[in-house]
Design a protein that fits this description.
- This protein folds into four domains: 64-133, no CATH class; 137-221, no CATH class; 223-285, Type Iii Antifreeze Protein Isoform Hplc 12 (Alpha-Beta Complex), CATH 3.90.1210.10; 288-356, SH3 type barrels, CATH 2.30.30.760.
- The protein is built from five helices and 23 strands.
- The chain has helices at 8-28, 73-76, 106-115, 140-153, 349-356; strands at 54-55, 63-66, 70-72, 91-94, 101-105, 119-120, 128-133, 136-137, 160-166, 173-174, 184-191, 196-204, 210-228, 243-249, 268-269, 284-285, 288-290, 295-302, 305-313, 317-318, 322-327, 333-340, 343-345.
- The strands form eight sheets. Strands 9, 11, 12, 13 and 14 form a five-stranded antiparallel β-sheet that branches.
């Protein structure tokens, strides 16, 4: 039995299918074209770097530092070939907060680049790239000023006080070139019993974006008290030039502490006192203007009548003290008010006259 003859139409169709398949191999596998190089250089395949839009892996940076709030493709690539630099502006991801460090997976970088039409090789098998964001630290004194203003605006505190900050306040960084005035206090609470506070700050990370930072601390109410600017010895009279000021926590100031300059000026030291330390009221006394045994002028004023007689002080006294006196003329003991050095006022004429006569 003879085989069936092959029709010319069937043969033509088969040849067409073979030609289409061969063309597809050449189109979708450019490396195969090395076998049929038109210039006679058959068998030399293209290298990765010769392909348009393909970036060699050696140019990947394993670690980078950025200043902006985003990481761009141009930040992670060391160089760009001709035509590839157009991809530099493509944003990969948000940068870490100022002063902090993060990482980007290579798979994420590759995915973003491919969507933009750029292929990046990774012959060294980098799994991630580390990113550090430049930042400028928020100084403690600036943060204190921000918090003090917030306390005053909310009428939570009045008078003088200091803040002791706890926790991570010293790790707050601002973007380079951003002023601390951009920092806002979103919330602030104070426990009146413990004087502890909590605050939520809105710290800038970019021109229009902020991040929340929670901080806490302790409020200490302060008060200025007078102290000595120099050491004084026992009996020395204090003047305004001897007074300096010291700020202390209110809790350290007792009822016996001198709290005003008026309480010190004109007073005498009862013992040697050091400079710069709180002064107790028991450390000072009114200076003696009459010493025991001294002769004094006893003075009685009654209307237009003024009588002065000589007496002897039976005890020492300061201005404003009542002391006992001996009328040297009559030998009687009377009481008088010290009104100045060696001067005593007798309060009633009857007492004075009775003592004298």
């Amino acid at each position: 039995m003879k085989p069936a003859p092959i029709k010319s139409s069937s043969l033509s169709r088969s040849l067409l299918l073979i030609m289409v398949a061969a063309l597809a191999v050449l189109v979708f596998n450019p490396a195969a074209m090395g076998a049929v190089d038109a210039a006679g250089t058959a068998g030399v395949p293209e290298t990765a770097s010769d392909k348009p839009g393909l970036v060699p892996g050696e140019i990947l940076k394993p670690e980078i530092t950025v200043r902006d709030e985003v990481v761009r493709l141009g930040d992670v690539l060391d160089i760009f070939e001709e035509g590839v630099g157009d991809f530099a502006h493509i944003i990969l991801t948000l940068a870490p907060a100022p002063g902090e460090k993060d990482q980007i997976l290579f798979s994420s970088i590759k995915s973003v680049a491919l969507r933009a039409g750029l292929e990046i090789e990774n012959p060294t098998n980098l799994s991630r790239i580390f990113v550090t964001r430049e930042g400028e630290p928020l100084m403690e004194e600036d943060l204190n000023l921000i918090l003090v203003a917030a306390f005053q605006e909310r009428a939570l505190l009045s008078g003088d006080f200091t803040l002791t900050l706890h926790g991570r306040y010293n790790n707050i960084n601002l973007p380079v070139g951003v002023d601390s005035e951009r920092v806002r206090v979103a919330s602030l609470t104070l426990d009146a019993r413990t004087n502890r506070f909590r605050a939520t700050l809105m710290v800038p990370v970019g021109p229009e974006s902020d991040r929340r930072v929670d901080i806490s601390g302790l409020v200490t109410e302060m008060q200025d008290i007078p102290v000595l600017a120099r050491a004084v010895v026992k009996g020395e009279i204090l003047t305004i030039n001897d007074i300096s000021w010291l700020s202390l926590p209110v809790k350290r100031i007792t009822l016996t502490t001198a709290k005003s300059a008026e309480a010190l000026i004109g007073m005498a030291a009862r013992r040697t006192l050091k400079s710069g330390t709180p002064i107790r009221l028991s450390d000072i006394e009114r200076p003696l203007v009459i010493k025991k045994g001294a002769l004094v002028a006893m003075q009685l004023i009654s209307g237009n009548l003024t009588i002065i007689s000589l007496g002897k002080a039976l005890e020492s006294g300061s201005k404003g003290d009542y002391i006992r006196l001996l009328n040297t003329a009559s030998g009687q003991t009377i009481e008088g008010l010290v009104i100045g050095p060696d001067r005593v006022a007798v309060q009633t004429a009857s007492a004075y006259l009775l003592a004298r006569y």
